[in-house]
Design brief:
It contains 11 helices and 12 strands. The longest helix is centred in the C-terminal third of the chain and has 21 residues. The radius of gyration is 19 Å and the shape is globular. It starts with a strand and ends with a helix.
Length: about 290
């Protein structure tokens, strides 16, 4: 069996994907397979991959299936003992894949692992946290997690990310797991198109008894939102809509009272960003209010 299957989703990021694959090939050993799903790119990404990176297994969907469905498509074809979802805008280092496999071999208690993510500037990108349970969502939306010093849904404190710890979700930009995690949870919920799908999947992993770990022992560079090309509105709206669906799926009895809290929190953010003369963000929160 292949030790590690690396799954990369590509969508209109030809130059970025090219660099990602070049670095991934340098990090890959003979027991590593790289599977790329081109999600209907129109910028020549699929042709570039086929020409410049013949070592990878290319799946050309011909249409944009979304993050969840695209990754699931590759997961069904992966043969590795361990599986790694890697964004096309993540740049690995030569030791990345070896360290990932070695960590699983040495730490039998870890079923799912995310490493340290850095932005191109070298600044830490927070990439793990706790599930958005009703309590955590209320603390987050009201800003009480920061006020009380609680590591909630989205911890921002750099201290949180300085040591290995068990968490409840890790970012899908670098999401590694044992094969049986995929087999027993069925992959991502394809109701999500993009954003929050990895959090929902981690929720089901926890329900099945799997443990999720954040491990800063190795680092990758994440450009962050390369395919969205600086769009503020789209990611924010999709994240909040995804959050509302996630809550309805896992905490349906709380939705009746949590929905007004979500609406109030987003209304407050819309007003605040408007007063701060940030019309694009204010408009994004206004759109959220029409969709949750």
């Amino acid at each position: 069996m292949i030790d590690l299957s690396v799954i990369i989703l590509s969508y209109n990021t030809r130059e970025v994907t090219d660099r990602c694959l070049t670095l991934a090939a340098a990090a890959a050993k003979k027991d590593t397979e790289i599977i790329v799903v081109d999600n209907g790119s129109t910028d020549g990404s699929a042709e570039m991959i086929a020409k410049k990176h013949p070592e990878v297994k290319l799946i050309n969907t011909g249409q944009n299936l979304g993050f969840a469905a695209g990754n699931n498509l590759a997961l069904r074809q992966a043969t590795g003992k361990y599986l790694l979802l890697l964004n096309s805008d993540v740049f690995v280092r030569k030791e990345t894949f070896v360290r990932t496999v070695n960590y699983f071999e040495r730490h039998t208690q870890a079923d799912v692992v995310g490493c340290r993510l850095e932005l191109p500037s070298g600044r830490l990108q927070p990439s793990a946290g706790h599930l958005p349970t009703p309590k955590n969502v209320v603390l987050w939306l009201l800003g009480l997690d920061k006020l009380l010093g609680i590591d909630g849904v989205h911890p921002k404190n750099a201290e949180f990310f300085k040591k290995s710890r068990r968490v409840e979700w890790v970012m899908g930009a670098f999401l590694a797991m044992r094969r049986d995690v995929w087999e027993k949870t069925g992959g991502m919920d394809e109701h999500f198109f993009m954003y929050m799908e990895e959090v929902e999947w981690c929720w089901r992993m926890k329900t099945k008894g799997f443990s999720v770990w954040y491990v800063p022992e190795w680092t990758v560079t994440h450009l962050s939102q390369a395919s969205s090309r600086g769009d503020v509105r789209g990611p924010l709206v999709k994240e909040m809509v995804g959050l509302s669906y996630l809550i309805q799926r896992h905490e349906p009895n709380a939705w009746w009272w949590l929905r007004p809290v979500l609406q109030a929190g987003n209304l407050a953010r819309m007003v605040a960003w408007g007063l701060l003369l940030r019309p694009r963000k204010a408009a994004a929160y206004k759109e959220v209010l029409t969709k949750i």
